[in-house]
Specification:
Layout (H helix, E strand, L loop, with lengths): L22 H7 L2 H22 L8 H14 L5 H8 L1 H22 L4 H5 L1 H20 L9 H33 L1
Helix pairs in contact: 2-5, 2-7, 4-5, 5-7, 5-8, 7-8
Length: about 180
C-alpha cells in the first residue's frame, strides 16, 4: 500500500495511513482506534490543564444545587456521611468525576497500544499516568493566582482514577455475561 493512499476499507487492527504522515511513523503510532483514543485522552488532559489554569472556576448553577439537595432530602440518604460530605465539598466530587473519565480514557488508550506489554498492563499504566497527572495538576495550581493545591483534591483525583480502573473490568464482565446469555 502506498503511503499517499487511504484504504477503502480499514479494519480495526489495520494501521491507520494518512497521506501527510510517512508510513514508518504510522507503523510506530499504531491502529486507528489507538490514534483516536490517544487524541481524546490528550484533549481531555488539555481540558484538565485549562481548568486548572483558571483563577476562578465557574460555580454550578444554584438551581442544580437545590435540585440535588431536594433529591437527597426526599430519598432520605442525607443521613449517610458520604452524601453529607459531597454536599459540603462539591469540588471533591468534581475532581473525582473529572479524573474518573480521564482514567477510563487512559485505560482505553493503553489497552489499544501496539506494544503488548502496555496492552497487558493497561490498568497499571493508566493508574501511574493518571495519578501522576493528578499530582502534577495540584503542583501546577501553586503557580496559578488565587488557586491553592490541596492534598484532598489529589486524593479525589486518585480515587477517580482508581475507581475507573475497577469500573472497567466490572462493565466488561457484565457485558460478557449479557452476551453469553443472549447467545444461549
Amino acid at each position: 500500500m502506498k503511503a499517499s493512499s487511504v484504504p477503502n476499507s480499514v479494519s480495526d487492527g489495520e494501521l491507520f495511513y494518512c497521506s501527510s504522515v510517512p508510513p514508518l511513523m504510522m507503523k510506530w503510532i499504531g491502529s486507528r482506534k489507538f490514534v483516536m483514543y490517544l487524541a481524546l485522552t490528550t484533549l481531555y488532559a488539555a481540558l484538565i490543564f485549562y481548568l486548572s489554569s483558571q483563577s476562578h472556576l465557574p460555580q454550578p448553577v444554584s438551581e442544580l444545587k437545590d435540585l440535588l439537595y431536594k433529591i437527597i432530602t426526599i430519598s432520605g440518604i442525607q443521613y449517610f456521611n458520604i452524601f453529607e460530605f459531597i454536599l459540603t465539598h462539591r469540588d471533591k466530587l468534581e475532581h473525582f468525576l473529572l479524573f474518573f473519565v480521564f482514567g477510563v480514557l487512559l485505560n482505553l488508550t493503553a489497552s489499544h497500544s501496539r506494544y503488548p506489554r502496555i496492552r497487558e498492563n493497561a490498568m497499571l499504566v493508566a493508574l501511574m499516568i493518571g495519578i501522576g497527572y493528578g499530582a502534577l495538576d495540584e503542583v501546577h495550581q501553586m503557580l496559578v493566582p488565587h488557586r491553592h493545591p490541596s492534598i484532598y483534591d489529589f486524593v479525589a483525583d486518585a480515587a477517580g482514577i482508581v475507581c475507573a480502573q475497577v469500573f472497567i473490568p466490572i462493565i466488561m464482565w457484565v457485558y460478557v455475561r449479557l452476551q453469553n446469555a443472549r447467545n444461549r
